[in-house]
Amino acid sequence: MKKLGIETAKGVHIGIHCFRHGVSSELLEAGTPIHVVTRLMRHADSNVTLEHYAHILGDAERVASEKFSQRIGQQITQLESDSEMESASVCKTA
Question: Hey, where are the domains in the chain?
Answer without folding.
Answer: 2-93
